[in-house]
Design a protein that fits this description.
15 strands; Dihydrodipicolinate Reductase, domain 2; alpha/beta; 7-stranded mixed sheet; homotetramer; 13 helices; 2 domains; 329 residues; Rossmann fold
């Protein structure tokens, strides 16, 4: 039984906290959040105790910490957890600065403790099945990967201002997914095109809300990624991969299987429109993967290095969009 | 080159006449229709000459006749054509009376001439492919066949009054399709339930507009058929067959492949809504099958006996719906 | 907080017991099962205590009982629970004998206590949404209802021998669904056709494994139901309803959204193949509906009378298949 | 009745020639092809006479010419036809050199005669419907356009060597489609990435077989195009457009509507795999649009300028892929 503490009791902390509380291989021991009502609410509903962030990373009766605090605190908490010998699961990103990420990973490496980064989409049953079949050679050699992500709606401009920009805040998931699907053939060139088409305030904040990226890998494979802060029919999350022997894709989940046909046509329900619903299974599977690795002594994946490499792609895309030229890695 | 005449230049006669006129294996020699403007129009557009019905069935320079006249004239024209040594293609049904059909088939048998009945749906590329794969054992032994037919809208009540009723006029296609898909295992029991739900005038004319039938075959296979005189999203024509190893189905053809997604859902176009459009390919393939059989000396299918057996099922369904009990054949 | 006991800790008892244990409006107080290891296992995993069936229906600290024991004990436990003033949720059927059901419902009526029958499919989010839209008039007046149910595979013949037969054991769910979708227009005629096509041992046990039924309602609406003990691509559960203004349907849930395209075609995953997975959401929603009704003082639905009426339809279908004639109700 | 001659009786010339021969508004007068057997075969099957290219562009009894000869002859034949006062329909491209195209268009402009370029995909009923609904505002302001084209298989390397390369030979259709869908907002930046993943001989011939392009328009809209010389499940031709109010897409046409379900999943047929079949309706609609414009005195579209602008995008993509930098237009 792995003794777990969750750091941060916001939206994503509550997900991981509750999943840990009912997980057969874990016991949620403590909840830490400087915002007391959040900590109390999660502690109460899970039977965990309330603790301070400081305590949690030090206490010897805690084996693993789930870092769900704001991004600016991630690297520091990872380092403190690692130094205290704890297994760390950290929501993406480790930090908005690649240099800071590299330093942090150095600390973890020296500590020799497990670190897993929360790229939850790898654990979506649909995407995981797609990747498994891809890795099994079902469509032959990969030639072209297309990834599409559209958020239901833009976050507040105040969030965007400190988010690192669309490529680091949103498309980083797609960069990790691209790497996940490329099975080791790393991107060597990034070209990004971005626009502000959804909300002019996002543009005034220096960011884009609609963007597309072309990646080329060492072996010449091509990846197309597109992102938008606006979806019109639900949270849109799709992957399509063409290989030498076929195509494989994974799509959205409709709210129900109901279809209505009349003179206007034949209509299905919109797709699920909230990431916590769309990825509920993924969050559970992600936690299980972390706990399995910790209890089995294996290195959990996605690793800190996966977090770094996705961040470097996001940095390159940001620079490409700024300069108007492709960036070689 | 088979010299063909078309008898009847109405809606379906024009289809067969034009298909014959451009068919590489046929020459449309003559068009006969007592309604002169119809005959003239089709003759003009195809380069055929106008002739009387009497002439056409006698003339020695005509090899094959396509009978597209009103139902009441079918049996007589088939007999005259057969006696004159001509190959005959006749639109369904041969007659509304099974006794009359049997007499007619006796005449054809004695003449030894080819006769094909126009159950066009057997030649629809989708249904033909389904049947071929079924016959090839792709879903194992057939257990349950479901056939659905919904016309875009009811015909005039004046038509319904002389149509023989829904089971003989409309569901006869589905009875033939059921026999086509059962690969020789004939229905031995028919139970029909009908209602008047679309237009009360149809009920006043003594007919139903919504009906469902259960067939049981000699080997215990089950067939569900449903028909309605009303479709709401296009001409609805579907088949689904469950077998011991799987299920096979064939569906409708949408007007386009366009789909629109928005907050209301994801909508495809309605399906094609007119039988001449839906079955355009089927009519062409049907004529080719007839001409191929005639030129190759083979017996064309569906045969006159297929026409009779479908009619007997329609008779039984009509009687079952009237009496409220299943009819054994 | 409603204090709940679960009677029967088998497959379905474990589902309801666990759902009750984590339900915010309920507390699972006790588990009763004469098979001690089953009771212990469920009690342990939920924190409930073990009790005898006798105790549970008597104890004043229990508000509601969930009857998940074998069918032969249902009516008796319902009566004892009702007499003890408890709200009762009972898995279908109340009994295989309609007379016994009627007597039992009389006892409950005199007790004035809530009784809900476990027709779980009404609570499937897809079917529930379909029904809600139907009731809202989205497809106009209902004309034709088609329900299809195919189990993944036949149960042991020993089970079939005491099951009451396919119509009472399996198709009873579809009879209830038909009534649910007909919005008050009750079936007045039942015609059933059954065959033994899957396993001859089922035939030797006096039952069928493949069956279809035609229902006609008081208003002339038509219902087609088909059932098979064998599914080939997952647990097949579909509904299609045609109305005067359109068609509405609800279908299966695929294991993933992955599709693979190659020279053989474009293939989706099979559908979910186990009822506990397919209806996991339905079981949760069903319990919530029961608890909501109990706490709100409302009469829970489906009622005991719904259980009786579905049973009468199953009885009529059994008799129709035996006699070869439709049964009027 | 427009008197038409077809120049070039190869694969595409036969399509246009036969369509013209049966078109109610046209008469196919002459067929010209230096390869005599080709000319004879098409002339025979359509009833047209054989003529020389020189004659055809001069003869006063010909109103319109359909230029279906090899690319190198297009510009010259367009100019000669225009000078002789004839309406000209010319297969894409006018020429592989943009300068040559511009000179040719100057000649046509001075002649004041109609010229239409054969971007057939604009006339595909699916894509045409998509564009019409887009123009009608059904999905609001366009934000992101994704176009995918995959040929069934690569042409011979000898063809590729003189084709102008994938961007000019194949992706030019997609550039035109992008412009068609952007409703006047022209691309101002082109970034192309290409690889040789299908056949190394294509690489040795200096071309790519897999490519993706990012376009950005004056208004900041983004277009993703991907092309491959290899398709694995039929000729793959898809469009997806996201706008402020929704998404609209048009997809492939399956060979039949048949689906088979079994333990392996649920499989549809592959999509139609030959462009002449996939675009048969488009070729007919394209000819009708040309003849309608000619007889109505309107300027046919796509215009010569559309041909030039697509070529300039193809030139820019070719240059971008070569240099590794985006090209501004």
């Amino acid at each position: 039984m792995i003794r777990v503490a969750v750091l941060g009791a916001g939206r994503i902390g509550r997900i991981h906290g509750r999943n840990a509380a009912v997980h057969p291989a874990a016991r949620l021991v403590a909840v830490a959040d400087p915002h007391v009502p959040s900590a109390e609410s999660l502690a109460q509903s899970t039977g965990a105790e309330i603790a301070s962030l400081e305590d949690v990373v030090e206490r010897s009766d805690i084996d693993a910490i789930l870092v769900c605090t704001p991004t600016t605190t991630h690297a520091d908490l990872i380092e403190r957890g690692a130094r205290a010998g704890k297994a760390v699961f950290c929501e993406k990103p480790v930090d908005l600065s690649s240099e800071r990420i590299e330093r942090c990973l150095g600390v973890v490496e020296r500590a020799g403790t497990p670190l897993m980064i929360g790229f939850n989409r790898r654990f979506d049953p649909n995407f995981a099945s797609l990747r498994e079949r891809l890795a099994g050679g079902e469509v032959g050699d990969v030639e072209l990967v297309t990834i599409l992500s559209r958020d239901p709606g833009p976050p507040p401009v105040s969030y965007i201002e400190t988010s690192g920009g669309l490529y680091r805040d949103m498309m980083i998931h797609d960069f990790d997914m691209a790497r996940f699907l490329l099975l080791g053939d790393e991107p060597v060139e990034v070209h990004a095109v971005g626009s502000c088409l959804v909300d002019p305030d996002i543009g005034r904040a220096g960011d884009v809300d609609t963007a597309a990226v072309l990646l080329k890998t060492a072996a010449g494979r091509i990846v197309q990624i597109s992102c938008s802060r606006r979806a019109t029919y639900g949270y849109d999350q799709r992957i399509e991969v063409h290989g030498s022997k076929g195509m494989i894709r994974a799509g959205n989940i409709h709210r129900t299987t109901v279809e209505v046909a009349n003179a206007a046509g034949i209509a299905a329900d919109p797709v699920q429109d909230f990431f916590l619903e769309r990825y509920a299974d993924a969050y559970r599977a992600e936690l299980t993967a972390f706990l399995d690795a910790v209890s089995g002594g294996a290195r959990p994946e996605p690793t800190g290095r996966d977090g770094l490499l996705a961040q470097l792609l996001a940095d390159a895309a940001t620079e490409s969009a700024r300069s108007g030229t492709p960036i070689r890695l």
